[in-house]
Amino acid sequence: MNSLRLPALVLALLVAFAPFAMADGIEQTFEHKLGMSQGATSWEHRIDLPEALVAQGHVFHKRTFALTGRLVVEREELARTYYYVKVRLPKYQLLPMSGAIKISLETTQTPVAPTALPAPTKLYMTNPADAPGFGWEGTGSFANITLLERSSGKTIWERVLADRKHCHLDEDVLQYYGRYIWAVRQGDETATWSPAAEFRFRIEKRVEICPTCHGTPTQPPCTTCHGTGHVTVPVLYLDN
């Protein structure tokens, strides 16, 4: 298991498609891809409310997005006059990495204060320990997932999901003997988030009999355990 890798953050300079104005709304698409030797990369985008709509008293009040390929959303912010989103392409060896996000923004001249949903319930985790799954129950159409180091409170992984109640850790950020908190909030198209529900866990390691040679010496030596007869595996412990 590798140690924590800090994500590379790149400010996006090129837009795949110019903003497309609709009646009471805006649509825009951003496309990204990684080169063969390029590591995982993040991009930031901002869409501003056109001055003509500002002059008419419009404000942003809803957003939706659709993802294609392997692109993920790390974080976002919907304000009255702009929408900010940070997207990312994780790196998987030997796989082409590309994707796009299509953002749809609605405006209104009669904004209503949104109401936050209650916190998600029935949180759970699934194996494998080094890339666990996170699940919850709730009524929100969007979810904001954050993974933090327990000792420092530092965020090491985050995702914004649409129409999902489960996800898997898709980057190698966990360490042996690390102690973590994952938090989930739910929201709707107004990007108004509920209070967070939290789950505490840790990753340790355990020595087990080699699943290939079953601890019996072989010639040539087993390629899984290199002749030792045992392997070290990560183990997930729940602290809630």
Our count of helices gives 1
Helix content: under 10%
* Sheet having the most strands: 5 strands, antiparallel
Give the uncertain stretches in residue-range form: 1-17
H/E element order? EEEEHEEEEEEEEEEEE
Strand order of the largest sheet: 12-11-14-15-16
Separation of termini? Answer: 24 Å
Shape field: elongated
Q: Give the mean pLDDT.
A: 90
Number of strands: 16
Strand content: over 45%
Overall tally of domains: 3
Q: Report Rg.
A: 22 Å
Content-based structural category: mainly beta
Task: Describe the structure using short key phrases.
five-stranded antiparallel β-sheet, Immunoglobulin-like, 2% helix
Describe, in plain words, how this protein is organized in 3D.
There is one protein chain. With 240 residues, the chain is mainly beta. The protein folds into three domains: 8-108, no CATH class; 121-196, Sandwich (Immunoglobulin-like), CATH 2.60.40; 204-238, no CATH class. It has one helix at 51-55; strands spanning 8-11, 20-22, 25-33, 41-48, 59-69, 72-78, 82-89, 98-108, 121-126, 133-137, 142-149, 155-162, 166-168, 179-187, 197-209, 230-238. Strands 12-11-14-15-16 form a five-stranded antiparallel sheet, with no helix packed on it. A four-stranded mixed sheet has the order 1-4-7-6, with no helix packed on it. The chain has a four-stranded antiparallel sheet with strand order 2-3-8-5, with no helix packed on it. The two termini are 24 Å apart. Mean pLDDT is 90; it is low at 1-17.
Task: Indicate the topology.
Elements: E1 8-11, E2 20-22, E3 25-33, E4 41-48, H1 51-55, E5 59-69, E6 72-78, E7 82-89, E8 98-108, E9 121-126, E10 133-137, E11 142-149, E12 155-162, E13 166-168, E14 179-187, E15 197-209, E16 230-238
Parallel strand pairs: 1-4
Antiparallel strand pairs: 2-3, 3-8, 4-7, 5-8, 6-7, 9-10, 10-13, 11-12, 11-14, 14-15, 15-16
